[in-house]
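BUG: 3D viewer hangs when loading the predicted structure for this chain

Environment: internal workstation, default settings.
Expected: structure renders.
Actual: progress bar stalls at 90%.

Input used:
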Amino acid sequence: MMRTLLAGLALSLYTFSSQASTVLDAPDLPPWQQVQAVLRSAPLVEAAEAVIQVEEARARRLNIGPHEWTLRLSDQQRRVRPSPEGRFNEWEVGLERSLRLPGKGDLDRQLGSAGIASARIYRGDTLHEGCRNLLTGWFELLREQTVAEQWRRQREILARQAQVVARRAELGDAPRLERLQADAALSQAEGQLAQAEGRAQVARERLTRQYPGLSLPDRAPSSEPQPISGESAPWVEAVLAHSHELALARAESARTRVVASRADAERRPDPSVGLSLGRERSGEERIVGLSLSIPLPGEGRRADADAALASASAMTFREAATLRRLESEAAALHRRALANYSGWLSQQAAAEALARSADLSERAWQLGEGSLQETLTARRLAHEARLAAQIARLDASEVRYRLLLDAHRLWPMDEEGEAAGH
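Structure tokens produced before the viewer hung:
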């Protein structure tokens, strides 16, 4: 029994590793080097880089501490009556500073490190979201190009049929109704083609504007999707292990716990010490003083600590909710990849069968054994089936690439991927 379980686990891990090999330059994907270049120069990624600099500066500030030296100067004139002199010039200079209690400095340094860690995770998340958006826009373009190409083929077929019907009508072998039917079908295909080409241009313009420097194909490649094998558990585990959103939630949860500890430590106020020098009665008296002041803590500090603790608790629950949602999304994505691939196989088989049926119907019509309306109907059904199969093919490829991307087996854009890639 144990051998069977170990064999099954080994097979599952092998299947997952073979499916999760890094894909960089697939035929139906944009070139990897261009993807890397356009995403790293994206404004949101530059903004994420600036956030890291912000957190590094905040970390330096936390390391130094919130207290600074305070210089205090005073000058006064004393009048004494009755006195022969009557007036005395007096002055005082003091230097004071609050001292951070032991333990608070360590917590402040932890807060600074936590902020930098969150900023770096946020940068990786920004890059990952950029990959997702690029992948979505890319396949949107491929779909629109595929639809336009399919309508272009349909128009050519209907144009050929319309020419045959027109020739027959001129010879008196075809009724006028058939010519009207053929011309109407051709006009409809031309209208659909114009709309499809317009949508393809819109998708192309959107990608060009959003990702300048990215080479776009003139037509969608005809590569077939690859199946996703194996159970969902290894895929879900890989997605969660590389999820920036989950890592960011965990980092923020850890940071709020440090904030709570720091707020609790602040219930013990920091003392202030000072040194002062003064001169009174025009120098007849010289004063050297040492001062110590300690704020008296009140309910305000306790309220701040309670609020920080409640915030940390809320962030812990948000982390748990994020984990549960991402697990569900990863499992659903794996299921979609399986279902889309199976659906494409069925759609492809149906399209091939209906294409053969349409060819036979057209041949029968040419031999005078069928009507043009039957031929046009068969051709329309074949066109719709082929269009559905082409869309299903692209959907299956997109979902597979999305799964590979979320498992970090597609484009190594984050810090971990850079280390592995370089």
